[in-house]
Amino acid sequence: MRVEFFGVPRVRAGVAETELQADSLGQLLATLAVQFPEFGQLLESDPQYSTFVANLNGDRFVSDPQTPLTEADCVLILSADAGG
Questions:
Q1: Who's near 83: CB < 8 A, 6+ residues apart?
Q2: I want to staple 67 with a disulfide (CB 3.0 to 4.6 A). Which of 8, 20, 25, 29 is the partner?
Q3: Across-strand partners of 68?
Q4: How far is it, in rounded angstroms, from Cα 34 to Cα 79?
Q5: Domain CATH code at residue 26
Q6: What is the C-alpha to C-alpha distance for residues 58 and 36, in angstroms, rounded to an integer?
Q7: CA Rg, the chain, in Å?
């Protein structure tokens, strides 16, 4: 699947996008934390004050680690303060 980073997550990951496989949102985030350690530091922060949000296929925001993912999905990782 494609993962695109925006805002602070992009700065921390050091890339605009990457491709990888994961069966769930939790597995995806764990893999990203290993692949991009500075991005992983965002995951270690207090969840009550999350610094990023995840969007699935541009359709909906997701936060449940059990959210299933497929190869065809595109996950957008955005700064939590993004939006209007």
A1: none
A2: 25
A3: 24
A4: 19
A5: 3.10.20.30
A6: 23
A7: 11
- pLDDT of 47 higher than 90: no
Please measure the distance between the N-terminal and C-terminal CA atoms of the chain and give it in whole angstroms.
27
Q: Provide the pLDDT for residue 46.
A: 52
Cα–Cα distance, 39 to 11 (Å, whole number): 8
**pTM of structure:** 0.89
DSSP per-residue codes, 53-84: EEEETTTEEE--TT-B--TT-EEEEEETT---
| Other Cβ atoms closer than 10 A to 1 | 17
Residue 29, in any domain of the structure? yes
Assigned token pair, 53 = 């949000």
Q: How confident is the model at residue 21 (pLDDT cuts 50, 70, 90)?
A: very high
